[in-house]
Design a protein that fits this description.
With 234 residues, the protein is of the alpha/beta class. 29% of the residues lie in helices and 10% in strands. It folds into 2 domains: 85 residues, no CATH class; 111 residues, Rossmann fold (3-Layer(aba) Sandwich). The chain has a 5-stranded mixed sheet, sandwiched between helices. Strand 2, helix 4 and strand 3 form a beta-alpha-beta unit.
């Protein structure tokens, strides 16, 4: 998962190295041979594997098979325009299946267990990682132990749900005013809102370990942010 700080600023990273042997897995793409051997009619939105993910083709793959017209949601499994309500419902329900299938493919969360058994946890993602992990070290020295989870993707998989279920109270560190990740966790995992304590830093500066420590020790109650630079009147 990305965030605004990472998306709008420049950051240093280790030099990147490309392996020429790397081969992309482009998913369900039919080749000319696949289309030639196909006995049934090809359907761009036909879910033949019951996983919600349909096979696609590249333009020009086959001279007579595999072509389709791309348009909005008013189409049937064969990409033909329709105003039939049943076809629309079928497509919407297929997308729900695809959403569930995606949970098994997206990057899994990373865990950092506390040094001692605890029923409290903390969740972070994106550029909050370094500050959150530094805060965990500080809290550990002060006798406050939190199991940690770094979320790396959405939709959430079963590991995320299990982490929430196994803890009584979980802090959610974010760099936005509205607690967007917390809202996603509540809605998608059907977690009681009181269980997730929002730690939202939105003062325009990158969140610090000290900020996280202070708000964890304060029970998740965030004071109004104080600007690092005060306004100077002329």
């Amino acid at each position: 998962m990305n965030d605004l700080d990472l998306g709008m600023n420049e950051h240093f990273s280790e030099p990147l190295e490309w392996d020429d042997a790397t081969c992309y897995n482009r998913g369900k793409v039919l080749s000319e041979a696949d289309l030639e051997d196909m006995k049934e009619r090809y359907g761009r939105y036909l879910d033949v594997d019951n996983d919600g993910i349909c096979y696609r083709t590249y333009p020009g793959t086959h001279p007579t098979k595999g072509a389709f017209f791309t348009r909005g949601t008013s189409r049937d499994p064969y990409a033909v325009y329709t105003e039939n309500s049943d076809a629309y419902v079928d497509n919407m329900e297929r997308l729900l299946v695809k959403w569930e299938t995606a949970k098994g493919y997206v990057p899994k969360p990373e865990f950092r267990p506390a040094g001692k058994a605890t029923t409290d946890g903390i969740i972070y993602f994106g550029t909050t990682m370094a500050s959150a992990e530094e805060a965990l070290d500080i809290l550990n020295e002060q006798g406050v132990h939190l199991d940690a989870m770094r979320i790396r993707s959405f939709p959430f998989n079963a590991d995320v749900e299990a982490f929430l279920e196994n803890h009584d109270q979980v802090y959610v560190v974010e760099q936005n005013r509205d607690g967007q990740l917390r809202t996603l966790l509540i809605n998608e995992c059907e977690i009681a809102p009181d269980k997730l304590k929002a730690l939202c830093c939105f003062d325009g500066m990158p969140v610090t370990a000290r900020w996280i420590v202070d708000h964890v020790l304060g029970g998740g109650k965030a004071a109004r942010p104080v600007p690092a630079i005060k306004e100077v009147k002329a």
